[in-house]
Amino acid sequence: MDTLRNRGEYTEEHAKAGLDAPLPDIETWPNQYPGYEITITYPEYTSVCPKTGLPDFGTITIKYVPDKECLELKSLKFYFLA
Q1: Catalytic-residue membership of 49
Q2: Sequence-ordered strand ranges (E) for 49-82
Q3: Domain 4-81, CATH class in plain words
C-alpha cells in the first residue's frame, strides 16, 4: 500500500485536497408534527486517513428537533459517501 508517509512529508497541499469537491444536496421534507426529537445513526462511516493512508471507521449520530423541515435519509447517506 502506497501511503503519504511512504511518499514524504504531509503538507498543507495534502490537507487542503478535496476541500472544493462538489457535494450532493441534502434533501428535506416538511415537518408536520412539531415538538419531537429525531435521532439518526449512521454506523457505516468509513474514510481513509490522508496522512497515513489507513482506513478509519466510525459511527455518526445526529440528534435534532426539527423546526420546519426534516432531513431525508437517503440524500444524507449520499452526502456521507461523497
Answers
A1: yes
A2: 55-64, 69-71
A3: alpha beta
